[in-house]
Amino acid sequence: MQTTQIRLASRPVGEPTDDDFAFVTDDLPELAEGQVLLRTIYLSLDPYMRGRMSDAKSYAAPVPLGGVMVGQTVCEVIESRSDRRAVGDLVLAYTGWQTHAVADAQHTRRLDPDAAPVSTALGVLGMPGFTAYAGLLEIGRPQPGETVVVAAATGPVGSAVGQIAKIKGARAVGIAGGPEKVRALTEEFGFDVALDHRSPTFRDDLAAATPDGIDVYFENVGGPVADAVNRRLNLYARVPVCGLVANYNATSAPEGPDRLPGYMSRILTQSLTVRGFIQSEFEPTLFKPFLADMGEWVRDGRVRYREDIVEGLENTPEAFRGLLVGRNFGKLLIQVAPL
Amino acid sequence: MQTTQIRLASRPVGEPTDDDFAFVTDDLPELAEGQVLLRTIYLSLDPYMRGRMSDAKSYAAPVPLGGVMVGQTVCEVIESRSDRRAVGDLVLAYTGWQTHAVADAQHTRRLDPDAAPVSTALGVLGMPGFTAYAGLLEIGRPQPGETVVVAAATGPVGSAVGQIAKIKGARAVGIAGGPEKVRALTEEFGFDVALDHRSPTFRDDLAAATPDGIDVYFENVGGPVADAVNRRLNLYARVPVCGLVANYNATSAPEGPDRLPGYMSRILTQSLTVRGFIQSEFEPTLFKPFLADMGEWVRDGRVRYREDIVEGLENTPEAFRGLLVGRNFGKLLIQVAPL
């Protein structure tokens, strides 16, 4: 059996180019005992992958040059040497940017297509949804009546943050780019207020939308949006930091002025809590409650989600570039093969 | 009865000058029921006072122009219209930069001169000691074997941070300016390692002193010291932010490059907790345990302290300028009048 893979050919400088990736078709090894052969259906694209392309110090090792780009997938088992998985099973796996793969059955999770569409295991009921749930509830700790702000708010993390904030009785203010996304925030996802960060009056709009200041800023973008939000953080506000997509393609520190002293001063005078996190930290304790809560919320319509599905593995690099600048609208998935 | 006061004449731009203060001698009002007349013995000078001279948004209102500069004091009661306080009592009060004052007896705390020298109520057994205790234990949470770093380490907060860290089984690395202070860190305060931030090899010295990285950075200075420390913070490191004295005289954001994106990225990739605080947040729950613990540690010699006493209210502005650049050596007090 063969697989077509996208390998990391060089470490991108700034925005990843087509030359940073190599498409290679190669033979897969024979299955060993306990392994399964998988056919990729959906590949998840997520901003953290930009970090894996870099060899800067981080919580995770970079993808080696020449290695297959990593990523979560939903796959079908097409051959099995494990009692755990049968041919035809749909599973969650971490097989990366490729059409087929051999994996240890124990590193896959079986999905029940009757419980929810299997693609949701990569989105609202998967890593992005769990990132929103754990970061908002463990670090953000929104209280009834407080104001929660999140950017990239039509994305899989941001939309879940806003909807969970509402469930917890907080006011949800969402920020997105462009009128279509902004409209979806209130009409589809139930945010109290939606703001367009591309508007020339964005700072004033934000002030008007947060008359009592901001108690929780779920940070997943950084950049100028964060700058505007930071000025409105209340005493004891919490800032879960789960992503900084605005910075991911940066090749050096931006020109001055140096905003760090001002930010530290704000942390001090407002008694802020700024806390970086990766969802895996909370998996041992919170993943089961997450699946129970979020499963229920999705079933009863209190949490909605949107998917942006791009057909064909060959379109992965371009779709990934779009993700970093917000061209997708909802959870970005590559449909590598039909379900 | 008259008092000589130091009033805020203008809001300093950069380092406070003599012109920013006005010395005025004025009549005190008659005592009302429940009030006491106080003679100031010790006036505490602390970095937070620079913030009170400014009208930037903060957790506390600024001193109004023409108002007496605020500050904690140790005073003697020289007249009383309260059952709570007798003439001759020594009390902790918040009467500011002046020789005499009228205060509500209920806003004073009686000090026992037999339990500890009364000046310690402004230092190791007072606000600075409590700042160290609450920030380190509630936010820093040092574990046995972890590495705790603190700057301005011969100051009243820093020296307490290092010594409490040792009591909790952590390794204490102190940073100070100049050979005399550096020597005191290991010889007097028991730090494991002492570093001079003025040394041209400071960054290398810090790396050598923290081979396992840094788990807690108690932030009370900011500036280049913080920059060097931040690069060595471990996964899940905690940064209680209690002061940024290096920035207090700044009049604008420094020139670039802009270090904020890099700092946020470090918070994210290292899952850092950065938490600003003012000790008053923790007073309701922790002040009693603090007095019990710290009183015991001071009595049995496990926590030592050093005072830098400047004679004469007239020397207050110059002493305060020195405090902001580290010219004091130990807790800075003005001896306004003899005990």
TrEMBL record, chains A, B:
GO terms for molecular function: oxidoreductase activity. Its EC number is 1.-.-.-. Residues 17-334 form the Enoyl reductase (ER) domain. The keyword Transport does not apply. InterPro entries: ADH-like_C, ADH_N_2, ER, GroES-like_sf, MDR_fam, NAD(P)-bd_dom_sf. It comes from the Bacteria. Keywords: Oxidoreductase. Pfam families: ADH_N_2, ADH_zinc_N. This is NADP-dependent oxidoreductase. It comes from Nocardioides ginsengisoli. The lineage of its organism: Bacteria, Bacillati, Actinomycetota, Actinomycetes, Propionibacteriales.
